[in-house]
Amino acid sequence: MKRMTMARDIQRGTKRFCNTGVRPWSKLQTRLYGLMDRNTNFQIHCSAVRMPSSQSSTPTIPRYWITEGKGKTKQTIWEYKPQRNYAWIDDAPAISDLIEAYIQTSRHDVRTKAWIDPTGLIPVLLRFDRRFGKKAC
After folding, report:
1. Looking at the 3D structure of the chain, how many domains does it have?
2. 105 near 116, Cβ under 8 Å?
3. SS3 of 133, please?
4. What is the pLDDT of residues 61-103, one digit of tens each?
5. What is the pLDDT of residues 5-63, one digit of tens each?
6. Domain assignment present for 72
7. Which residues of 9-39 are buried (b: 16+ CB within 10 A; e: fewer)?
8. Of all helices (H) and strands (E), which one includes residue 114?
9. What is the helix, strand, coil percentage profile of the chain, to 5?
10. Containing domain of residue 48, as a range?
11. Helices 121-128 and 88-104, packing angle to 10 deg
12. How many whole angstroms separate alpha carbon 130 and alpha carbon 33?
């Protein structure tokens, strides 16, 4: 029974952290994949990670990461890591909002826009954006 409760808490945490307002994470992820070079096997992930009870009163925290490649060549090329305690409370929704803004920004403006990106996500997205050629940046 405890295992089912823990799995349910993690699932709820993923929905809480990764969704952007009314859109589920999977829809945001699919829209982003539409802009990325398919030959690089770019994948972006969002998950809730269970915290040890001694470290936090909140049972889960978000984890965002990007991988490239397949099988043995698959590697993590970007990962969100909070720089201070409880930074994820503000940063987690901001990451999903940043991805949404990136998707909605036109091809002509995406490189010149003054992004507020303390996580370093935008340069990674630009690197794999198929609108600019394979690994453009």
Report:
1. 1
2. no
3. coil
4. 778 899 999 999 999 999 987 655 665 666 777 888 899 999 9
5. 444 444 444 555 576 555 688 899 999 999 999 898 999 998 877 766 655 555 667 78
6. yes
7. ebeebbeebbbbeeeebeebbeebeebbbee
8. none
9. 45, 20, 35
10. 2-132
11. 30
12. 10
Q: Please check whether residue 25 lies inside any domain of the structure.
A: yes
Chain position carrying tokens 């940063």? 91
The verdict on residue 75 lying in a domain is: yes
Alpha-carbon distance 39 to 116, whole Å?
29
Which of 67, 70, 49 has its CA nearest to residue 59? 49
- pLDDT value at position 7? 42
3-state SS, residue 90: helix
Q: Is residue 137 part of a domain?
A: no
pTM: 0.76
φ and ψ of 11, to 5 deg: -60, -45
Q: Could you write out the DSSP letters of every residue in 35-81?
A: TB-GGGT-EEEEEEEEPPTTT-SSSEEEEEEEEESSGGG-EEEEE--
